[in-house]
Design goal:
11 strands; three-stranded antiparallel beta sheet; six-stranded parallel beta sheet; 30% helix; single chain; 14% strand; alpha/beta
Length: 397
């Protein structure tokens, strides 16, 4: 496959494609940077190396969930070791918003993190929270944009309802939103009224139809359980497994592809998933009966009966539908053992995790009432269409 030559926002800045901004950054007395390991250019140089080399003085660094080094597992509080590094994922909900004192002395905050195009993935919420605080203290925010790795056209799912907001659904977005981080910032600013001085350094050469591997940009896993492009493709649905007592494959080398529990029979689970796919018109994936032994998190040290999800045609997959189909199949296989996750999830006790992930209670109640996953999706079509009209105004590519 021939890959298109694409420059990230960082590449554009580093190669002189945003000269006026670079001059203003050089002239700033204090610059903050929010980043993780994905903030690299095409030569694999990190932003914290590049900016000082081009004359920008970095006063403070902010780390999102998983940390600046992206070593922490999900929902593990990060305590950054250096005094000039601020963690935006600590041990309580308040830690998700930067303390105003960490932004008010900065001239500008530069944000450079690879998103994966899914509402649950918390980096876009971190951007929004930082913009809110920056607006309050008068600090400018600059996003160095990066492609949406699962293309910028396809959208899926529903929109977060009032009362179901959380770190995995902080703003009214579709589950698979089809936007870049820079576009999301414009949406937050204009649609939600975050009155911040905001600028985006656009990618060059990226077009909305492109998947990440259609570009020549290097891939760096943005979190410990997002190792490949294939993982990002199914994540908009398979993250829903976090809202159940099924293992989503954390503690294996195939997170979100391996789904199971000790109380599931692999052959029966596979058959149920296949039948669910057929009944709900789910295309583009295949299921294989499997077993796995997670090394940590859910069912650690126990052999799980499972399915492994294989991508056949990524352009045909509705990943959110896939997640609902797999959950329905597990419920039908062993209704006595299947349960919704009720532990505190992303610092929220109520609503429960599945409702936070779905942004409403309709998915959970619907599946419990034997409403099919396809019917659930059809019931959300009007709100998705309304959201798409709003989204259109903020697309940059």
């Amino acid at each position: 496959m021939r890959r298109s030559k694409v420059l990230s926002g960082l590449d554009v800045l580093a190669t002189g494609g945003a000269e006026a901004l670079l001059e203003s950054l050089r002239g700033a007395s204090k610059v903050g940077v929010c980043c993780n390991p994905t903030a690299i250019d095409k030569s694999y140089r990190h932003i914290l190396e590049i900016l000082p080399q081009v004359g920008v003085k970095i006063a403070r660094v902010f780390g999102p969930e998983h940390g600046v080094a992206a070593t922490a597992q999900d929902m593990i509080g990060v305590q950054e070791s250096a005094p000039s590094v601020v963690s935006l994922y600590g041990d309580d909900e308040a830690s998700l918003h930067p303390d105003p004192s960490t932004l008010e002395d900065l001239d500008v905050l530069v944000f450079d993190i690879q998103d994966i195009g899914t509402r649950f993935y918390t980096y876009q919420a971190t951007l929004g929270f930082m913009m809110e605080v920056a607006a309050a203290v008068g600090t400018k925010v600059v996003v160095l944009d990066r492609p949406n790795p699962i293309n910028g056209i396809s959208v899926e799912g529903n929109v977060v309802r009032e009362g179901f907001e959380s770190f995995v659904g902080a703003y009214p977005l579709a589950v698979r939103h089809g936007m870049t981080m820079g576009e999301l910032g414009w949406y937050f600013k204009r649609e939600l009224g975050i009155d911040v001085d905001y600028e985006v350094v656009k990618c060059q050469g990226w077009e909305r139809y492109m998947w990440y591997d259609d570009t020549d940009l290097p891939w760096v896993l943005p979190s410990p359980n997002m190792p490949t492009i294939d993982t990002t493709i199914i994540y908009p649905g398979m993250c829903l497994i976090e809202g159940t007592n099924l293992s989503e494959g954390r503690g294996t080398t195939r997170p979100f592809h391996l789904i199971g529990a000790p109380w599931l029979d692999p052959a029966e689970f596979e058959a149920m998933c296949r039948a669910g796919a057929t009944d709900n018109g789910l295309e583009g994936v295949a299921f294989r009966a499997a077993s796995f032994l997670p090394q940590f998190q859910k069912h650690a040290g126990e052999i799980c009966g499972a399915v492994e999800i294989h991508i056949i045609d990524r352009n045909a997959i509705n990943a959110f539908l896939l997640g609902l189909v797999v959950i329905e199949a597990a419920r039908r296989c062993n209704p006595k053992e299947f349960a919704w996750r009720t532990e505190i999830y992303e610092f929220v006790e109520n609503p429960i995790a599945i409702d936070l992930l779905c942004g409403n209670s309709e998915a959970r109640v619907g599946l419990e009432s034997h409403i099919s996953p396809r019917e659930l999706l059809e019931g959300w079509e009007s709100e998705l269409e309304e959201w798409l009209e709003k989204r259109e105004k903020y697309l940059l590519y």
